[in-house]
What we know:
The chain has 7 helices and no strands. By secondary structure, it is mainly α.
Amino acid sequence: MTDFSKRLRSEIEYKGLSRKEFSAKTNIKIRALDTYLGPNPSMPPADTAVKIAAALGVSVEYLVTGKEYQQKTDISKYLQFKDLLDDLSVLPEETLGTIKAVVKAFAKGKN
């Protein structure tokens, strides 16, 4: 079994998915999944690897190497604020000024 296959199997199990559920989630046939998970596994094509990684919430790099991809700017800590940022982007500038002042006041109070 390859490291890719081990990590893939581990991630599927971690998510609590059966092969059938994972097949349905990724739209990859069970027979194809078996070729990636079986006793003599093969690597999937790049487009399939991307589908697999996306469904598992990991990077292709992690599945292949075991190392997580690090962007120059780690935006993952800001993803929780995406909805808030979308809402803020439609507000008028004078309202944003007030909101910025309130947030800064709260942030200073925490330090």
